[in-house]
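Box 3.1. Reading complex inputs
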Amino acid sequence: MSLTTDDVRRIARLARLEVSDAETEHTRDQLNGILSFIEQLQAVDTSGVTPMAHAVDVVQRLRPDAVTEADRRAAFQAVAPETEAGLYLVPQVIE
Amino acid sequence: MSQWEVVIGLETHAQLQTRSKIFSGAATAFGAEPNAQACAVDIALPGVLPVLNREAVVCAIKFGLAVGARIAPRSIFARKNYFYPDLPKGYQISQFEIPVVAGGGLAIQPEGGDVKFVRLTRAHLEEDAGKSLHEDFHGRTGIDLNRAGTPLLEIVTEPDMRSSAEAVAYARALHALVRWIGICDGNMQEGSFRCDANVSVRRPGGPLGTRREIKNLNSFRFLQAAIDYEIGWQINELEEGRAIHQATVLFDPDTGETRAMRSKEDAQDYRYFPDPDLLPLEITPAWVDEVKAALPELPAAMRERFAKDWGLSAYDAATLTATRETAAWFEACVATAGPGLAKPCANWVMGELAARLNREGLEIGASPLSPAQLAGLVARIADNTISHKIGRDVFEALWAGEGADADAVIAAKGLKQVTDVSAIEPIIDEVLANNRKSVEEFRAGKEKAFNALVGQVMKATRGKASPAQVNELLKRKLGG
């Protein structure tokens, strides 16, 4: 599998990354380089091996259902770029 | 329209009734000041880590058991990547390849239709997003992250429904179930229970058509109206030779129309991958058994028991199990009155009591009349101490708090039915003497005149005579 420059542009848009035209080809080559490593990994026979989501064989620790967080809105909003009426303000998003 | 078949699948987001959020210790209570319940994890400050709430998992297990699904012994949390300020991490923590609940289903019955089984594909745990407020911020959008991180169970059906009526019946059945097992408060105005409908049409027997997804329907009425509009729109498009394109649409309750929100081409590329911050969720058989033991009797089982043990009709059993509170109230009533009086208890709960609660806008739990008080009343009607009609007066008195039980009201108001023949006979004689015309009409063959006489006697006894006894005595006197 190898990526085209169009793929690179699309992935960049999904990830909200700005990749200039000059960088596109270079980025494509780097990504294809990574994919070729993965191709080597895929050569290993994994039939009979349960797919793993994590590298360690540990399960999730669970938390009791209790409210442990106090209201720290004032502290959080002191470092926010823009707030009003307790809300965080962001550039307008239109659906 | 008959040449098109409608195919509907529903995705429902049920907010789980936990005190704290799914991955943080912030509170989930509705209606707090904006962002007062959004902690460092919820607003995605760098360096924070999610820790899973055990109770959210218990809710998912309860649901899985209630719909006869498989509970995954090991399920995985995944990142669903999209950029929107209502989830500042840039992704939603959800489940993708291995959800916590798979399979199962729900029996539904659309109004006037047959019982149908709707299969569930899956139910998975995920976090809710915050809210965006688009008005009044000088061209900016205001973000309230109180809701961000509220635990959700997303419940997905197979495309098994064939009409908006079936979709509504399913949504109602699911709504009743999640409240019954106590995992969701079902408050649709507050957004605790929200439906997305996937709608497509096809030629019967043909391949599935392209679907459009109607988002965020927060009432059963809107669900029905949105699906009906969408079906009409899609059929019209196809009949005019245009193709349906996959899209997410919104329903506008003001116009009753659906309109496309965004094309799914890009938006749907969520690039799911296992969340490295969360390890696999393990649910042991012992844990499932523990949850199962604490699960209340399910409505379907209770309906069956009401019908089998107490001889109630399917309709009565369904009405009485509409909510767990109603069922508990009714059961408490029968427990006092005795199983032999289950049917009259049911009639009073579904009739007089339901009407009165409805009129006053009360939930059954807030009824001023207790189950034991109603049981006492039903028993006094059953043993002929009072007539059904007087029973209504006793009901009103008990409702108003005039007396501790039916016996006290009956004694205090002198409502005891008069069954002593020597007390009734003189009254009948008097009525006959004062209503010669009716007596003659009856003798001339007019049955109606007889009823008028019964009415006069009942009136003269202020309803305290037994209508059956009055009937009998009158017949004897008129016949002789």
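In summary: The CA atoms of residues 8 and 237 of chain B lie 18 Å apart.
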